[in-house]
Amino acid sequence: MEPFIVAGVRLGVARAGIKYPDRRDLVVIEVAAGTQAAAVFTQNAFCAAPVIVARAHLAVTAPRYLVINTGNANAGTGVQGLTDAEATCRALAKQTGCRSEEVLPFSTGVIGEPLPVERLVAGLPAALASLQAEGWTEAAHGIMTTDTWPKWASQRLMLNGREVTVTGIAKGAGMICPNMATMLAFVATDAAVDQALLQHILNAAVADSFNAITVDGDTSTNDALVLLATGQSGATVPTQGEDYACFSAAVRAVCIELAQAIIRDGEGATKFITVQVEGGRDSAECRQVAYTIAHSPLVKTAFFAADPNWGRILAAVGRAGLTDLDLERVSIHLDEICIVCTGGRAPDYTEAQGQQVMARPDITIRVELGRGAATARIWTTDFSFDYVRINAEYRT
Amino acid sequence: MEPFIVAGVRLGVARAGIKYPDRRDLVVIEVAAGTQAAAVFTQNAFCAAPVIVARAHLAVTAPRYLVINTGNANAGTGVQGLTDAEATCRALAKQTGCRSEEVLPFSTGVIGEPLPVERLVAGLPAALASLQAEGWTEAAHGIMTTDTWPKWASQRLMLNGREVTVTGIAKGAGMICPNMATMLAFVATDAAVDQALLQHILNAAVADSFNAITVDGDTSTNDALVLLATGQSGATVPTQGEDYACFSAAVRAVCIELAQAIIRDGEGATKFITVQVEGGRDSAECRQVAYTIAHSPLVKTAFFAADPNWGRILAAVGRAGLTDLDLERVSIHLDEICIVCTGGRAPDYTEAQGQQVMARPDITIRVELGRGAATARIWTTDFSFDYVRINAEYRT
């Protein structure tokens, strides 16, 4: 399904030759005056120059333009990287008549190479010339790197009798273990939302979506997620009540759909794996167990092989670092099949059952810890030959 | 070099058909009366039945026999697993005339399948019949699973004018991220060492050897390392002074050689990578950074590709969770080449230099944190097609 347009948002794409010739690698997003913005960024200490600049600009004023390049992350580039990101903003500001602080820069691609800022700036007029409200799918293409398909999601709801839209795009397939946000995602709505409320809604949505996915445990230097509210629908989101709940749910649904799309397109992924941990003392320990399973190369290769080698899941639960774990109370299910209970193989479990489940493209690992009421749910992929191939060949 | 024999130790091997026919899969180690033993075991909460039984037996008395099977880990096997491990000890005790508590059982192989205890017990007479002081290399073969070569190490030193030997064997190639010990390792000396001192020396040696290696971050359920001191050389190790230091250094050297052999034989490994982190506030944070680098699938695949994609190392340092990391003070070297300083690419660094280093089979990543005097050093491998192949095919 094509994404719904969002009143007050236009998107344009250009081929700037950042890394490869003739590839859509430069995206500009324009938002109407009065738009509110909320954002979350990577917590990697080596965050990229555009992340630093975007954070600084957001602290000063709401944005009018977002500029995104692929092919170069402008990370690990020191002072020159900051200069280049600022130069990008200045160039776009000059061409559009806004202030430099009203431009937010985003970059994704290889780390540690100087941003080819001249080629980027030279591509801006073409991107601006192609700005259109229907530009969402083109923009979704324009932010792809190792992604194999463009990712968007769209929701419509009624607020105070007015139709409101929430539409987003995202990119990312590797170096995915977001900590506050994923690689790059941009979500916009035509609802009017107070900035503080917008940030609150975004933070809540991220916890259950982008902060609940992992491909390889590698948190990127460039993660950024921006939520833009243009207010052009005429409907305002209240701070509580049913309309607040409906709008938050729509933002959350778009974020989950985008986050899951990143996992389904995970580098080399052949399986979509949900890890559900229940019965923990708190959600932190549930997440700890879930991520230990999701990051285990042995668990991931077993899923690639469609081999019900459940001992590897059990071993991952055991090394997750939970104190006083009572093995007698732990159980593990693969979809509807109980494979482990009371510290060992479930009496009724048969290898044939395990093989049947492992053959499925979507599988849920459910771990019951039996020591509380907390839960956590994350999504991940298997680990295939193609993951190694893609990441061994990425630069060459 | 063949390992030196250790007075008071004999080793025997049999083909018991635990998992495969006609494979050396059962090892018995006999130690002289009066031998002291120290051991460290996995901290995986789902520790295997033989680990539980060996711990319990060691708490009661010093061992006379160790029995090790491959092909089956006897882990995730619940109460039946404990019964089977005890039955193994009883059978060996009966055939040798010792007490059941004087036997320590060890298992390695697939998790979650019942131990074929009848086949194991049926193989014991052949193992006992082959006991010999020169049995170290045969025993090193007998404990292999996915290892591609047998691993031993041997040191000789003089204590009080008497020659003392320290010899050890180990196995392990995958599910390697020991936490107190590695998969399986057995080290013996003919020095006389008080049990508490022996444990102290072992703990110190393990910290710098088996607890400093990782293949895939997956801590096994069956890790065990035993250090045996027969006293048959007539030399006694004192609790301090030069002889203490020399003996401890010999144990440490054997442990490091065995641990490094496990990494060099890591599943699918094409590179031996030393990760050296310096200038930390404490060794814990240095280890945290070192393991974040060593476990990063992106760093590991870049090394497999011999691609100096150092941005991935920088990103791993950045996500390691150190608070207040001052990027201006961080530098990263690959062997003698400085690749990162003051938060970005080193000014003199060239891609050609990086490629030259990455082509080497042994590479040191050195990270300077610039915020203290603590250090840590660990060893790891790259991540290759063969790692995926080996672990996708392991059970089939």
What report would you give on this structure?
Two copies of one chain form a homodimer. With 396 residues, chain A is of the alpha+beta class. Chain A folds into two domains: 9-264, 4-Layer Sandwich (L-amino peptidase D-ALA esterase/amidase); 272-393, ArgJ beta chain, C-terminal domain (Ubiquitin-like (UB roll)), CATH 3.10.20.340. Chain A has eleven helices and 16 strands. The first copy, chain A, has helices at 49-60, 78-96, 117-129, 136-142, 195-208, 241-264, 283-295, 297-304, 311-318, 351-358, 385-393; strands at 9-14, 26-31, 36-41, 65-69, 103-107, 151-159, 162-171, 184-189, 213-214, 224-229, 272-280, 331-334, 337-341, 344-345, 362-368, 374-381. In chain A, the strands form three sheets. In chain A, strands 9-16-11-15-12-13-14 form a seven-stranded mixed beta sheet, with helices on both faces. The first copy, chain A, has a five-stranded mixed beta sheet with strand order 3-10-8-7-6, sandwiched between helices. The first copy, chain A, starts with 8 loop residues before the first strand and ends with a helix. Chains A and B meet through α2, α8, α9, β14 and α11 of A and α2, α8, α9, β14 and α11 of B.
Pick out its properties.
homodimer, globular, L-amino peptidase D-ALA esterase/amidase, 16 strands, seven-stranded mixed beta sheet, Ubiquitin-like (UB roll), 11 helices, 2 domains, five-stranded mixed beta sheet, 396 residues, alpha+beta
Briefly summarize what is shown.
By secondary structure, chain A is of the alpha+beta class. The first copy, chain A, folds into 2 domains: 9-264, 4-Layer Sandwich (L-amino peptidase D-ALA esterase/amidase); 272-393, ArgJ beta chain, C-terminal domain (Ubiquitin-like (UB roll), Roll). Chain A contains 11 helices and 16 strands.
